[in-house]
Design a protein that fits this description.
heterodimer; A: about 425 residues; alpha+beta; six-stranded mixed β-sheet; five-stranded mixed β-sheet; 15 helices; about 20% strand; B: about 450 residues; 16 helices
């Protein structure tokens, strides 16, 4: 457990904005983090990539501060950034404490008064940058071109996880100014957001500023969106081969399951542990079998991630020769069967628990940035309805038993998956 | 234009943590920071590489030896990595051509067994030829896999361009395919015994423990050998070359890296260099990022950094740009560098912003266990005193534009003073062969790995 209990207080302004405070004056800055409960799942086919493109526009200035955000905030902070995923968009700044009021003012201004100064020039500029981001992270990155395909297969339409958050280039190109304005009006509302401040600040004064600057922003009626879990309609295992266009040099076997393990689902921790036991580190089962013993593979990653509506379990293996695709697939599935048959030790469970404990201890040391305390307070508030859950973060993991991991293996074996052979262009 | 709230009177009273240092009876230096807020403990042993001649140390061998230490299976069929993990700790190991760093992180009540294990593995090394062959194959595979990363290729090109071919610095730390192919078991064992030892030069960084008697006994009892002389300054500086490295894929972007060694006469140069870097490419609003991303839209992000712990220090700028705008990007970079001395000189506002950012950054870099460890290790590898960070913050406000210009003008005037490497699509790169600005050599990616 973390030595320190995080003191968390939450207030809700009259317009519905939820504000969470976690004071820690041992820190040299105040971390401000705001989540808007909107992501690529709120997009429609033909408008993919819109939530992320909009995130970029939020840094282009608002009515009372119509200038690039970085030019003002960078000199008074140690970090400023934003990100978009399928379910939410976040923005954060780690601010020198004496400038907290300024950044609260600026965040309020772009929540309430952004669209009045949005222009085609700003939109066209950010489209160019986002397209370069797409090229850098997907088209010019090894295997980056596989993700679009995988997403489309494992979450068949009309599932809102059918496309990647970055979107299709053709959709990004055709985004219109009128649509961005409508997007802001629909989703960038006090009642659709959660704001957390962690670190060095004066609570009483900060609450006054939050009320002063955010309090007058109206919450129009939000477009209703169903955030309830939604499982994939994938009905059977899919096998596919693709010749990659990316600069990858080794073939890759990708096995991806769409899972029902949405955030805070019962099987989230047990699938996390299964991924750790299968593929985290040199001692993990698949590493030992595929890399150390048979030497058929070069490297591998096993990942389980939970999102708001559903989860994904991924096994990605960089292999040495295409001829070994089938053998590696069989060894991998056999290993999951092996766990399902009960062949798992208590030591493996303890090891997985240790890894999570160290990892969470490291994560919750920092107040700001991605995955820091302020970010996690919003995570627990938006998805779990209670930011105080940050103090019990390990409880669910401490309760995992051997049988739970066996159940997780059994679940994977009966859940349809995609088996993708990514081949290298000759 | 903007009516922004003024800064409040609330002053940041946050101070740098105390860094303590101690020399043990065996001459090993220990640097410690205490961060009791979390239940974590980290210890790292840091050894400097004193001989960089490729005739003594084949390229990539240092990194390979560390890999052997942690990843080869022992007689009990477990690697050191697995054994440390099984004790509930996280192994940590890395190396470049300058330093070896190894140790572990654990909860604060669980350090003794992993520490004894790691010390014993260094003092009583085990070697298996079968494992040597396996790990050699794996390292070859890693390089082939990394060949798909354009920035990895650019780093290889930059090392080849800047450093003498007789020095391991002219290769990235993983070496290259032909050097690995020639590794011999006995030679690697010998290198292992040369570099994985405790010497009077060995440094230890520890986070979260102070004056623990048991720990002091273990560390004081480490047998050390005398300092090994430094041979690394014997290499002649090669004539720099600029490379266009083409791949077999139609890269939609070109990866650009440019680099140059910097002078370093005293610790004030580090402040001068840091401030300049912040303005050139070390921040979002830096000149390179504003030019190539914000104004032109050629790149998602472009930046620079300075590696102070290489000898001499190295300034590197880089990023990925749209393939069709590679030539334009090179001219933009050159304009930004030349502009610093001509029509676009650094303003006092830019300098003040850079000072404010760096001050904040230095303070907050000690926030977490991991970031404090990074700062401690930097102090050790850059050979600075334990008071360096306090002095840095005391002195940064004394710097003015004249100081900055004195420093940078003795290092470069234009992009042509740097080595420039571009990795990408052959058809786009070919067009750059006849630039009036830079003379490039076109080579295949296979020639560099």
């Amino acid at each position: 457990m973390n030595k320190k209990e995080h003191s968390v207080s939450k207030i809700t302004l009259s317009n519905g904005l939820q504000c969470i405070l976690n004071k820690d004056n041992t820190k040299g800055y105040a971390a401000l983090n705001i989540w808007y409960h909107v992501g690529s799942k709120n997009e429609k086919p033909g408008m993919t990539g819109f939530a992320h493109l909009f995130e970029h526009l939020m840094f282009e200035g608002s009515k009372n501060c119509n200038t690039n955000w970085f030019s003002i905030v960078e000199p008074i902070s140690t970090g400023i950034n934003g990100s978009t995923n399928s379910d939410r968009t976040n923005y954060w700044e780690n601010i020198s404490p004496e400038y907290l009021e300024r950044v609260i003012f600026m965040e309020a201004d772009r929540m309430g008064y952004l669209t009045e100064v949005l222009t085609d020039t700003k939109l066209e500029k950010e489209k160019k940058i986002v397209i370069q981001e797409r090229k850098q992270n997907y088209e010019n990155s090894p295997y980056g071109d596989s993700e679009e395909f995988i997403q489309d297969i494992i979450f068949p339409k009309p599932h809102p996880y059918n496309w990647q958050t970055i979107g299709y280039e053709s959709d990004i190109q055709k985004a219109k100014l009128s649509e961005t304005i409508k997007f802001h009006q629909n989703y960038y509302l006090p009642s659709n957001s959660s704001l957390a401040i962690s670190g060095n600040f004066n609570s009483k004064q900060t609450i006054k500023w939050l009320e002063q600057y955010f309090g007058n922003i109206k919450s129009n009626k939000i477009n209703s969106y169903n955030n309830k879990p939604l499982i994939s309609s994938l009905k059977k295992n899919i096998f596919h081969e693709m010749i990659g266009e990316s600069p990858a040099t080794l073939p890759k076997l990708i096995i991806r399951w769409p899972t029902n393990s949405h955030i805070f689902s019962n099987n989230e921790p047990e699938l996390d542990f299964l991924s750790t036991i299968l593929g985290d580190g040199i001692g993990s089962r698949l590493y030992q079998k595929l890399i150390t013993k048979t030497q058929l593979a070069q490297s591998l990653e096993v990942t389980h991630y939970s999102n708001e509506l559903a989860g994904e379990f991924d096994i990605s293996i960089n292999i040495k020769q295409e001829i070994n695709f089938d053998e590696i697939y069989k060894i991998t599935i056999d290993e999951i069967k092996n766990i399902n048959s009960g062949n798992i030790s208590n030591e493996e469970i303890i090891l997985a628990k240790n890894k999570y404990k160290l990892s969470i201890n490291r994560q919750l040391e920092k107040s700001g940035g991605f995955g820091g305390i302020a970010d996690m307070l919003n995570y627990f508030n938006i998805y779990g309805g209670n930011p105080n859950k940050i103090n019990n973060i390990l409880d669910r993991y401490n309760k995992v038993l051997k049988q739970d991991v066996i159940n997780a293996a059994e679940y994977l074996l009966r859940t349809p998956h995609l088996r993708l052979h990514y081949k290298i262009k000759k | 234009m903007n009516n922004l709230p003024s800064p409040s009177l609330l002053k940041n009273k946050f101070k740098l943590p105390d860094i303590s240092s101690e020399t043990l009876s065996n001459k090993i230096n220990i640097f410690t920071i205490n961060k009791p807020s979390t239940d974590l403990f980290t210890i790292l042993f840091i050894n400097k590489i004193n001989n960089k001649s490729t005739s003594i140390i084949p390229p990539g061998a240092i990194s390979f030896v560390i890999k052997m230490l942690f990843e080869q299976k022992g007689l009990n069929n477990y690697s050191l990595y697995e054994q440390i993990e099984n004790l509930g700790a996280d192994p940590i190991y890395s190396s470049d051509n300058n330093f070896i760093t190894l140790g572990f992180q654990s909860s604060s009540d669980n350090w003794e067994k992993p520490l004894n294990l790691i010390v014993n593995s260094i003092l009583n090394p085990y070697f298996s030829e079968k494992e040597f062959i396996r790990l050699k194959k794996q390292r070859t595979g890693e390089i082939i896999q990394n060949k798909g990363n354009p920035m990895y290729l650019a780093q290889k090109g930059l090392a080849k361009s800047i450093y003498s071919k007789d020095s391991i610095d002219s290769f990235t730390s993983s070496g290259n395919l032909s050097s690995i192919e020639n590794y011999e078991f006995e030679k690697i064992k010998k290198i292992f015994k040369q570099i994985l030892i405790f010497t009077e030069d060995t440094k230890i960084s520890i986070i979260n423990i102070n004056n623990d008697k048991k720990l002091n006994i273990i560390l004081n009892n480490l047998k050390t050998v005398k300092n090994i002389s430094n041979h690394s300054s014997d290499f002649s500086v090669p004539k720099k070359k600029n490379y266009l490295i083409y791949t077999n894929t139609n890269n939609p972007q070109s990866a650009i890296l440019f680099g140059k060694n910097l002078t370093l006469s005293n610790s004030t140069d580090i402040i001068l260099g840091d401030l300049f870097n912040e303005i050139l490419g070390g921040s979002f609003m830096s000149r390179l990022n504003v030019s190539l991303r914000e104004k032109k839209g050629y790149s998602y992000g472009f930046g620079s950094n300075i590696q102070w712990n290489t000898n001499p220090p190295l300034l590197i700028g880089g990023g990925s740009v749209n393939s069709t705008k590679t030539k334009e990007s090179i001219y933009e970079i050159n304009n930004e560098i030349q502009g610093l001395f001509n029509n676009n000189k650094i303003s006092n506002e830019e300098l003040n912003n850079a000072k404010h950012s760096l001050k904040q950054e230095y303070l907050n870099n000690f926030e977490t266990h991991t970031s404090a460890l990074k700062m401690l290790n930097w102090l050790i590898s850059a050979n600075q005193s334990k008071n360096f960070y306090n002095k840095y913050l005391e002195n940064i406000d004394k710097i003015d534009l004249n100081h900055i210009y004195q420093y940078i003008s003795q290092n470069f005037k234009s992009l042509n003073d740097f080595s420039t490497i571009i990795v990408g699509d052959k058809n786009h790169l070919r067009k750059l062969q006849n630039l009036d600005l830079i003379n490039f050599y076109l080579i295949a990616a296979d020639e560099i790995i």
